[in-house]
Amino acid sequence: MSALTLKGPYWVTVRQHRRVLWAIPAVVAASLAAVVALRAGAQAPYSDPSALLPPDRGYDLLRLCLQSAGGALLFLPLLVGAFVAGPMTARELESGTWRLALSQSTTARAWLGAKVLVAAVVCGLGSAALVGIYRLGWARVYGTYQLHWADRGPYEAGGPVLVAYCLLGVAVGVLVGQLVRRTLAAMAVTGLLVGLVLVALGALRWSFLPVQTVITPFPRGSVAAGQPGSALLMDAGLVTATGERLPQYACFERTGHMGDCPADMHVIGRYAEFHPVSHYWPTQLVEISLVLALAAGLLFAAFRLVRTRRV
Q1: Whole-number Å distance between alpha carbons of 174 and 48
Q2: 51 phi and psi angles, rounded to 5 deg
Q3: Domain of 12?
Q4: What is this structure's pTM?
Q5: Tens-place pLDDT, residues 208-260
Q6: How far is the first Cα of the chain from the last one, in angstroms, to the nearest whole number?
Q7: Same domain (yes/no): 217, 198
């Protein structure tokens, strides 16, 4: 049993931040109870939209809560990084209390390693639990407005990429905390940097895999023909006899009708480029690999800094 007891800097780190560590399982438990209750009170969506049925308030409430939760979980990596950068790292460097740890036969690398390990384990387990809880509720309202598999919020909150971003927050936090060494400033800089990574990869993620293309005849075919209903449409337009692609409204600008094109345009079909739902997990894996590689590089820099610099 004694082998399982935390010792040295690990015990100190857990002791220092015990309130936050106790709050995490409490938040997870409350989230699970809320999702189970909302899911139990939500009926299945209507199979006949034209039927005059009373509104299902339980289903609508579940959708509303999951829309809000998906957006809120996007900020979780920022909060993780800000806490690691400020209260866990920069505050001790700012106040000088880290010297007490070094006076107890603890090296600077062991001191920093305790911060990283405790934060990574707690944030990894906590964020993974929240992802599972989100997916439990998402399964009932999947594919509805703003809860599509590719929407910002559900994409991150419903997949392991959220765990990777939380670990990135830990890595950014320990590095920025050492560099800035001011609690509030380190928290602000870390939140900004993690947010920039989220925005940048969010803008690039649908270029990781090649799109699928479907072409339907003009004017009988439609953009939706040939692509799955759950697909993420990336681009659509018209195709000419030479293979040139035109905007969707190219004919409308000339004739005033979407399905009527002048003969000199030689339009023969419509094209649509999309990502099918089968691209969800490969895209998640590519994004996770990029985020974890970035986190590993930042952690390497953080440990090099604590070893070579006189803090």
Answers
A1: 54
A2: -70, 140
A3: 2-45+57-202+279-308
A4: 0.90
A5: 999 999 988 887 766 666 788 889 999 988 999 888 998 888 888 888 777 78
A6: 36
A7: no
